[in-house]
């Protein structure tokens, strides 16, 4: 017989959210998450959490806790609130019916048309075009299905700018989507690096799924010789911390693509790479859902001032793509951080 679930939704103050969430888990909740209680209204406030940034939350936070059917969720909530001295602004307890979660997940993912020739296609779908470059990818534990704007911007950049026979390194590879796409688009050798062992495992599985040769490793492994193209679709703070490492993985005369940079973060990221590269104007994709994205070119060093070519498309107010040219032949090993 199908099992139903119970979901408890409680609106509390920001300073009460963590304590109530922890208390509910200890009381028997199967999962707990926090969201903006003003979501969907004019008062909704996006929060972009990054490693190294000060923690932030919403003034009015909705805590959602999932309990099994038959669990005394109402009583557990009342006890938790009493113990923590919390008076919720609102409370809702509702049933969550059992579903075919696999089919539900699959229904949310359809083929993604990235560019004129590149499609991202789940394994349960047929390619829409017989002559398309098809990257097979199913949603999993690692980030990167081709639907997120930053991923899509990088894929578009690769399709337009990658030269046949170039080598590519995807730093912070997630699902491996960018490295795998590069191989399908004509790269000679591709490699990915990620701090998450699950991401490395997923990337290697996705490479096998697409029947391409690629290598995905954790940061302490040998990444091989500097690449012609280095792609890093992560977040601004890690991009800044890893600047010496990322620049060092790109050969002089190569190109760097950085993505996941919000507009207010542009200058800080550019400054972090200023010892090695000069950035071109940012590239961003607009339309549909307003999307963050970024890119960067690293061009050959020369005695004179380098002249950068414009990347593509108009800047989006939220995020940017950055393109750069190199200003040094190498990166000092002593300046390379060991981790994010």
Give a description of the structure.
The protein is of the alpha/beta class and 340 residues long. Helix content is 25%, strand content 25%. The chain has helices at residues 14-27, 73-84, 101-107, 149-161, 177-184, 197-209, 236-241, 243-248, 266-272; strands at residues 5-13, 31-36, 60-68, 90-96, 112-113, 118-121, 133-136, 167-171, 189-193, 215-217, 227-233, 250-262, 277-280, 319-326. The strands form three sheets. The chain has a seven-stranded mixed beta sheet with strand order 10-9-8-11-12-14-13. It has a four-stranded antiparallel beta sheet with strand order 2-3-1-4, with helices on one face. A hairpin with a 4-residue loop joins β5 (112-113) and β6. α1 (14-27) packs across α2 and α4 (149-161) packs parallel to α5. The chain is globular, with a radius of gyration of 23 Å. The termini are far apart.
In short:
This protein is α/β, with parallel strands linked by helices and 340 residues long.
List keywords for this structure.
9 helices; 340 residues; alpha/beta; disordered C terminus; 14 strands; 7-stranded mixed beta sheet
